[in-house]
Amino acid sequence: MKFQQANEFFNGKYQTTTTRKKTTKSVVLIPFTLLLIMVLLTLMKNTNESPMLSSISNMNITKTETNTNTKTCDIFSGNWIPYLEEPYYNNETCNLITDQQNCLKFGRDDKEYLHWRWKPNECDLPLFNATQFLKLVRGKKIAFVGDSVGRNHMQSLLCLLSQVSQYEDISHKYTSDVIYFRRYFFADYNFTLGNLWSPYFVRSIDADPNGHSYDSIMKLYVDEVDEAWSSKVENFDIIIISAGHWFFRPLLYYEKGQLVGCNKCGMENVTELGHYYGYKMAFRTAFRTLTNLENYKGVTFLRTFSPSHFENGDWNKGGNCVRTKPFDKEEMKLDGYIKETYLTQVNEFNVAQEEGSKKGLKFFMINTTEIMLWRPDGHPNNYGHSKEQNVTFNDCVHWCLPGPVDTWNEFLLYMLNVESHTSSKLESVF
Residue 395 catalytic? Predict the structure, then answer.
């Protein structure tokens, strides 16, 4: 923008001056014009080199600063590389790990999955620094909105932060449902971290008269936001929104109170619309809610779809995930339903980002889908479940803690840190 304005200013000024008939004035203006050119070129160079976090349409490219130069870096383009150091925490140093993701506690003996780090092609992704993170969010509130994979992400962040600062579970002060709606308070930094459970973002109820089960059919009112999260989100400064796997189950879609179609419902005279339709409409409703809430002034991050890795069968038909190291790029490509699911939410995100910018709201993407597609080794599989539970399927959806999910918080810290230094809007937030 500055480049364009500078050129328009220079061209207009130059043409007015050079058309003057008085030679003496022209001679006087020649050195002035040359000086102006030099000044404008300097401004243009500084503008082009100023660090910023680009929009999602520019593929999440950031610019990292060093003492001597500035270079462009797409932190989401790279490779998993071997890393010999121990993880940030383990099941003994973090008591917040749930049994469902506590792979070490329940006997997973291969440890190679813990010794890989994400390496961007054009720069280094800094290690997670819990103290730096807490300083950035001092006096603020962060909420994870979505499903159990989002909660998995939050629990990773809790474990990372608890290594340097004590927290208090204050969930009971805000809700009676402390299983699905949780809040943790770090008094030293006046910082609150919360989880707002809403796997669909929109209003949903069981359609099956026999009640809820893993594969029972649900009614989804895709144009009505779930007030369980929307009524609370205005109190938070940063929202990390994500959802995915619940949309693959049998669903009935309602708009304006009327049945319009379904996903895997198998009903006569009901149009099969597939899971993409429900996914699209749910994100559209969620993003519109965030852009239209009168008192929501927060920064929104979309963490993109997290792929599962069931092999040898579906999740309920003996499927498992027994691999012990990442795929390489030739073994696994982003395509098929995973790519389409990813693009569905990205399209809605792009619209929200554009609409939000008109109201001074910031939307950013933690673009992890392809990155996590290459990590079939990071799931609990048949580890990580309580021995008291009668588990009949392997978990190839969630992620072991510690594990590759911790990388999501390295991304989050990196993006918060860049924005806190480069955006006048976000400087007022952090």
Answer: yes
Q: What letter would DSSP give residue 350?
A: H
pLDDT band at 389 (very low <50, low <70, confident <90, very high): low
| Burial class, 149, CB count within 10 angstroms (exposed 0-12 / middle 13-18 / buried 19+) | buried
The CATH code for residues 56-427 is 3.40.50.1110
Query: In this predicted structure, what is the pLDDT of residue 216?
Result: 82
Q: Which residue, 308, 311, 309, 291, is CA-closest to 300? A: 291
Identify whether 148 is a catalytic site residue.
Answer: yes
Which of these, 426, 321, 427, lies nearest to 380 by C-alpha position? 321
Domain ranges of the chain: 2-49, 56-427
d(CA 201, CA 224): 9
Q: Which residues pair with 61 in a beta bridge?
A: 74
Tell me the backbone φ, ψ of residue 371, rounded to 5 degrees. -60, -45
Angle value at C-alpha 39, between 36 and 45, nearest 5 degrees: 140
272-328: per-residue pLDDT in tens?
999 999 999 999 999 999 999 999 999 999 999 999 999 999 888 889 999 999 999
Token pair 């680009």: residue: 54
Strand-strand pairing, 218-225 and 202-206: antiparallel
> Count of residues for the chain?
430
CB 141 within 8 A of CB 191: yes
What was the pLDDT predicted at 210? Answer: 74
pLDDT at 42 over 90: no
- Position 419 scores a pLDDT of 85
Query: Which of 110, 84, 124 has the alpha carbon at shortest distance from 376?
Result: 110
Active-site choice (148, 198, 230, 306):
148
What is the reported pTM?
A: 0.82
Q: Which of 245, 379, 385, 398 is catalytic?
A: 398
Pick the catalytic residue from 223, 226, 237, 395: 395
